[in-house]
Structures are given as structure tokens and as C-alpha cells.
Amino acid sequence: MIPDPNSLYGPLDPAPDAGWSSAPPRMGFFTDTSVCIGCKACEVACKEWNGVPGSGLDLLGMSYDNTGALTANSWRHVAFIEQPRPAGRRTPPFAGTPTDGPVSAASAAVAAGTVERTGTDPGVPTGAPSAAARMAAGGTADVLGDPIAAGPGGTDDGGPGGGGPGPEFLGMPGTQPPGRGTGAEGRTDFRWLMMSDVCKHCTHAACLDVCPTGSLFRTEFGTVVVQEDICNGCGYCISACPYGVIDQRKDDGRAWKCTLCYDRLGAGMTPACAQACPTESIQYGPLDELRERAATRVATLHQRGVPEARLYGHDPNDGVGGDGAFFLLLDEPEVYGLPPDPIVTTRDLPKMWKRAGLAALAMAAATVAAFVGGSS
């Protein structure tokens, strides 16, 4: 029997589709990354409430984040993205270096007064001007002491020879505390992007569709939960998830992921992560209300000069029918490690069944023709 296509893609209320006759409103998460401070209180609360084992405090070598990704032992993951671009569209990073513009007069004065050695400059030939000397020159010489050509803005944009103060040099990374020189706005060598990632509880959950034991099921709240006592560790759900969320534990091979605190929902309680979030970055409630709240928040950020703010996973017409846990992002999804256009891996099942049936009929017809031709 070919399943109803609407059960595999497109807008859908998943709880009634799963057989819940009197389901409550669909519940979910809205995570506003613009107010996430990276405290990881959500990670700790999730582990404490659900008894998720620890996974060690490893240094990844590429980020201050020590979790790395969502795993069977990390159902919430606060991603730390250190981005070499200014916060709030202010000064470009690494000003005063060969890759960018001049330094501010305040920073040049500080550099000129530096008499003690602060270390060597990697890659600078012997005899080249020191960093302090280059900065004291007001940004008119590059790392080799040669004059820096004026930029496309000429001398009116604070470039070499310009009258403007120019951006503040903070080194690589910043060598001055915030507020030194031109003020706090000068500290713009990079910005932090933080996001508390979690299972998306997709409207069309491929992990649920491919589970052969019924370990994964749809709750009356529209969420997707793993019953670990039924899971046989086949791993089909792991390859089916378009987000790479669900994972197996190495010790027993079973699959684990966020349950959206199903036990707390049944008691009318807020999930542990949302309850612990100090900035209300993680918001829990009826999904329709969260979508309205998120749209208002995006409009507010656009009015305040943050045009890159966008929603991710909120659209019921996307490749997974919309997510039960969606996000407000401040950059492209790929920056956060999210797929730009996720598609439920089981959406083409009707076409696959149809083509398989046609192929079977063609093979049967060829077999009959071969027997008939051979007998004659």
C-alpha cells in the first residue's frame, strides 16, 4: 500500500496523523540565538533531569566549546562560533595590518609609548619596523615598512592620509581590553555567535519512518521520542536524520536523542533546558504561538539594524514540513553547522514504490514473454 503523500511531506499536524484523536496543541521550542550567552545551563539541566551521562571536558582545539556536537550523550549542544567579522557592522577586523585599513590615533599613541618587548612578529623579516613602530606611523606603512596605497574610498574614508580616526588596531587577536582607545565599539576583531542546538522534532521525521521496531514514536504533543527499551541498535534512524541529530552510544549501541522532556510535558511542566535558560533564549510553548512570537522578534531586529536576522525551520512548506524546534539565526545556516535546505529522506517513498512496481511488472512481462517464445 502506497502511503498518503501528505504523511511524507508538506504541512501537517503530526499528532492526529499518528492516531491521537484528542491531541493537545503541538508544543515545541523557539531558540533565539541573538540573546544566547553560551552559559550552557541548558546542557547541564538536560543532563541532570534526563540522567544523560557525561562525555568529558575535552579541548577541541578549534573552539571554546567543549561539547562539539549533538551526540547520544549530549542532547543539548551550545555551539560557539568565533567569526572574524565585526559585531554590529562596525569596524573591519585586523585594522592596521596589510589585510585592512589604518589604525586610530589613540592606538598609535599607545603603541608609540610601548618600550618593553612584547614578542616577535611571525613572518616579519629581520630589520623590519616593529609592530609598535608601524602603529605609531599611523597606519601609513605596511608590515615591511612600505607605504600603503589608499583604498577605494580615497582619503575621505579614514584611509591613509585621511582626516578620519580610522578603525582601532587590536592585534590578532585583540591586544587591548574593550574600551581602550576609541571606546568599546573599537573592539571588533571578531564576534561570537552562540546557538543551543537540539533535536528538531520534525513534522515529517525520517528517523521515525525508518525505525523497524517502533522504538521511535510520535507523542500527543507532536514530538518524537525514542523508547530505549525497544531500540535494537540497527542504526537506520541515524542515517535517515537530515540534521545528523540522533546518535548511538558506544557501550550499548542504542539510539538516543532529545525527548523534549516528554515526562515533564505530561505533568504540565516546562522542559528542563527552557526552565534553566537565564536569558529566555530557549522558549517553550504551543508551536503556533512561538512562530508568531518569532516573526515579531525578527521584525524588531530588522528595525534595530540587524538585517541578517532570519528564522530557520519555521516554514511548514520546507523539506521537512517545518520543525518542532526552530531557531532565529544571525547568519547563514551553514555558519551554525545546519543544512541550508533539509529534506526528509523518506519523502520520495511513493515514487520509489511506484517505480519498483513498474519494474516488477516489466520483469514479469519479460519472463512470460520468454516462456511463451521458448515453448513456441
TrEMBL record:
<keyword id="KW-0677">Repeat</keyword>
<protein>
    <submittedName>
        <fullName>Formate dehydrogenase iron-sulfur subunit</fullName>
    </submittedName>
</protein>
<dbReference type="GO" id="GO:0046872">
    <property type="term" value="F:metal ion binding"/>
</dbReference>
<dbReference type="InterPro" id="IPR051555">
    <property type="entry name" value="FDH_Electron_Transfer_Unit"/>
</dbReference>
<dbReference type="Pfam" id="PF13247">
    <property type="entry name" value="Fer4_11"/>
</dbReference>
<feature type="region of interest" description="Disordered">
    <location>
        <begin position="85"/>
        <end position="104"/>
    </location>
</feature>
<feature type="domain" description="4Fe-4S ferredoxin-type">
    <location>
        <begin position="190"/>
        <end position="221"/>
    </location>
</feature>
<feature type="region of interest" description="Disordered">
    <location>
        <begin position="144"/>
        <end position="186"/>
    </location>
</feature>
<keyword id="KW-0004">4Fe-4S</keyword>
<feature type="domain" description="4Fe-4S ferredoxin-type">
    <location>
        <begin position="27"/>
        <end position="57"/>
    </location>
</feature>
<keyword id="KW-0479">Metal-binding</keyword>
<feature type="domain" description="4Fe-4S ferredoxin-type">
    <location>
        <begin position="222"/>
        <end position="251"/>
    </location>
</feature>
<feature type="compositionally biased region" description="Gly residues">
    <location>
        <begin position="151"/>
        <end position="166"/>
    </location>
</feature>
<dbReference type="GO" id="GO:0051539">
    <property type="term" value="F:4 iron, 4 sulfur cluster binding"/>
</dbReference>
<keyword id="KW-0411">Iron-sulfur</keyword>
<dbReference type="InterPro" id="IPR017900">
    <property type="entry name" value="4Fe4S_Fe_S_CS"/>
</dbReference>
<dbReference type="InterPro" id="IPR017896">
    <property type="entry name" value="4Fe4S_Fe-S-bd"/>
</dbReference>
<dbReference type="GO" id="GO:0030313">
    <property type="term" value="C:cell envelope"/>
</dbReference>
<keyword id="KW-0408">Iron</keyword>
